Input
Amino acid sequence: MRNRAKLLYTVSLVVLDSLMVGLSFYLAYHIRFSTAGEIVVPFHRYWSTMLVQTISMLIVFFMSKLYHLQRAASRIDEVYSIVTATSVGTVLSFAVTAFVFKNVDYPRSMVVYAWGLTILLMTVGHNLHRWMQSTLQSRGYGEDRVLIVGTGQVGQMIRQKIQHSPGIGYKVVGFVANGSNSQFVTDVPVLGHLEDLPAIIQQHDVSEVIIGLPDASRQELLSIISLCERGRVGIKIFPDVFQIMATEVNIGHLNGLPLLTVHDVALRGWRLALKRLVDFAGSAVALILLSPLMLLMAILIKLESRGPAFYAQERMGLDAKPFPCLKFRSMRQDAEAQTGPVWATKDDPRRTRLGALLRRFSIDELPQLMNILLGQMSLVGPRPERPVFVNQFRRSIPRYMDRHREKAGLTGWAQVNGLRGDTSIIERTKYDLWYIENWSLWLDFKIIVRTLFNILFDRNAY
Output
């Protein structure tokens, strides 16, 4: 059933892409000759060219692994892959047409129209297909039955992620306990222990095993993998091995002896200059465009309650140096008079009525664009924390201070992955370290785009 569903998803996507390429070519033909003011070439003379275009696109899309259906793949990455593959496919089809069909007049403007329309329609088609697949998988068609090894915190986190994302097509059938470290699980059954893995896999028709044992040794992991392989299932391991060492790792050798080479890829030289240039330009443009909204918010804050519209709170930035982080005031002026420094909570009684709205849609953070313009922050980076909390976390969380190797950000990798508000500081730190050591301009762009979408749907913003 699962294999049949996966085949159906792939075949339907190929058919949909073929239709979209053909429609793009047909529309490009009409746009080209409806605006040219010249004799129209009959469309039937372009049948062969359209066939070449379609086959070329499908080949390039297949080579680009766009038909390898991935669970929870990034839409931004998929659009980037579509643009790249369509560009290569267009060049390939144009070259084949010019070489094989020498008597066919294939205008360059028509090529450009077909290229742009193919990107547009392919993107729409893939998103429609993704929605259809997610809908069917959430209803159980083609879902994979998943077994989680480990009932601890990591195992519970994996279960919650799966249950909160029904569209990815996973169904948790149960847990496997790890000896005496097993914990009681309420809503998902514990089906047995590690030695029972082969029988559990066969009895419950498990198609994928996710290992969530952060304290397991290498030998224990190899033993678990060996037990799983008897059932011929897919195996995934939560990458807790790299929680402390999140740096980029390459495999090298010493006269034939394999070694892991760890690179320090913190921003230096031209990378640092490029990021600063993007921060300066982005914050300047955003301040210009958002200045009417910011002026309106400042007036409304002053009208609603006594106190300044803006306030500056000391936060830790690059190299753990404090700076005044600007925000719209969303709480009473004396919010911490009795409690001292504390985190905001959901339905926080200290908020003003307007402040609740500002914090829900992150409008209170717009003044930080000034911090970015002045070079104190970046558009993307680890979120700045207050010194009192930094001093607490640095003593209990490994590598916590490595977050301050780069500038703090208006948004960040941890935030777009749902780690804001009342969430684990340890998990946030892992995401921040991964971002710092895997930085790219494309990653920054993805985070910014995801942030814009999350503003509307993020439930952890308060």
